[in-house]
């Protein structure tokens, strides 16, 4: 593409990460439907999703390939792709509320993509470290610090 001035614009911003760069990406898709042995996520038509009814049918079928989804593999290997540290002087007073907000964010993220999960939440004195399987989910968790509170903002 060129403009009137003769400048050329590239499409480098459209380039996506190649799956071979992610050690947990599925390089070969199963031929038929597959199910995760741990979380019972279903892989159909190159997409992961949760469906309890369909999962029960697929688990009983001998032709269904049983494997471990990339999110469960990352959790097993303790390989977080996103880490958010929330520091706050009033953390002990509001820890249950913050954990509830993180759980709500995770529930929303899992409804969109079952591979976006919170791996673990580690508490140290006046900070919480949230480890996630995806950096996008970590950014969503980071937005918690902007929520209004009676004790002031949460620092990161």
Compose a concise summary of this entry.
It contains 4 helices and 7 strands.
**What does the largest sheet look like?**
4 strands, mixed
Q: Percent helix among the residues?
A: 25-40%
Q: What topology, given as strand order, has the largest sheet?
A: 3-2-1-4
Gap between N and C termini: 43 Å
Poorly predicted residue ranges: none
Shape assignment: flat
Q: Report the C-alpha radius of gyration, rounded.
A: 20 Å
Order of helices and strands: EEEHEHEHEEH
Q: How much beta, percentage-wise?
A: 15-25%
Structural class: alpha+beta
Mean pLDDT: 83
Number of strand elements: 7
Helix count from the secondary structure assignment: 4
């Amino acid at each position: 593409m060129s403009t009137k001035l003769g400048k050329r614009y590239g499409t480098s911003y459209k380039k996506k990460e190649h799956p071979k760069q992610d050690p947990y990406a599925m390089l070969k898709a199963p031929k038929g439907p597959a199910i995760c042995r741990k979380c019972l996520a279903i892989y159909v038509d190159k997409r992961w999703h949760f469906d309890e009814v369909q999962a029960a049918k697929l688990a009983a079928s001998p032709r269904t390939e049983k494997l471990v989804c990339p999110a469960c593999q990352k959790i097993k290997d303790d390989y977080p792709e996103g880490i958010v540290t929330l520091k706050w002087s009033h953390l002990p007073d509001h820890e249950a509320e913050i954990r509830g907000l993180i759980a709500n964010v995770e529930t929303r993220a899992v409804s969109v993509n079952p591979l976006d999960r919170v791996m673990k939440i580690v508490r140290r004195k006046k900070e919480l470290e949230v480890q996630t399987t995806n950096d996008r989910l970590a950014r969503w968790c980071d937005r918690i610090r902007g929520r209004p509170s009676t004790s002031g903002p949460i620092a990161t």
